[in-house]
Amino acid sequence: MTEFSLTEMNNRIAKDSLFLNELRSEIKKVIVGQEELINKILISLLSNGHILLEGVPGLAKTLTIKTVAQLIHTKFQRVQFTPDMLPADLLGTLIFNQKTGSFDTRKGPIFANVILADEINRAPSKVQSALLEAMQERQITIGEETFLLEPPFLVFATQNPIEQEGTYPLPEAQVDRFMFKLKVDYPSKEEEKTILKRAVWTQSYEDVKPVIEPEIILHAQKTVHDIYVDDKVEEYVLNLVFATRTPKEYGLADLDGLIEYGASPRASINLILAAKARAFLKGRGYVTPEDVRYIGADVLRHRIILTYEAEAEELTSEDIITRLFDTVEIP
Questions:
Q1: CATH number belonging to domain 227-327
Q2: For the segment 249-262, what is each residue's pLDDT rounded down to a tens digit?
């Protein structure tokens, strides 16, 4: 990229990212702390990727997503997943019309722009498959008719890591369709003090109103797509991903036999897309290795399948990812 075109891209980003300041200030009216979570949600919004959020109850996962969705002039649907749910409850179905003698299409809640799939692991596999197919294909087939889902189309799914009774864990192949798997952590003591005051004394949250048109998001996504990625950064991403498949070749012989399946090509694609979006948040027209490292764990943690030996040694995918980033050479 020439110096002139890089300057041009930086100016373009400065102009197209103005809406982010307003978005952040409105989010802070409702959400206390959770800066990392908000950053990752904005990155997914800019790179058109879906998110799986995992955390114990009460960490404002649902509230954060609902707040972000309310700030955009788009259709938002929250779907509570339950064990007795059917695919038709999500996608829609054909209803017989007695007057006309024909079948009419009744669209389900998935026909929205932002979907909150609450406690996705409580629904049976058929429902999960129906949702994840829509995420990948961005279209729905009901009967003989196929409907394209209107962009932007984003799915934010939540799951509770501590309750296993009455849950249906998501198959690894399906989890792969999420760009990020985010671990939502507890707030700090000061943040929880502010939450406490809001909840106990005011007993209400400030109302937020839509401030962003979907066209602005779609335009920003095009700008993110045009952000420059150097060959060395691409090579760094490929080295990280290939190190999960053949660790011996990348100086990680100690991980040999601990990884059952390495990250898929979707990991490489999503690392680049998310790194571009992070560069956009930073006002840069080019991606750095630090952008890749910032989003690396969130992209990889659900794509690395460990062996029984690794589980016996009480290793987690987080441990493997730490070793990857410590060992693979940074350009």
A1: 1.10.8.80
A2: 888 888 888 888 88
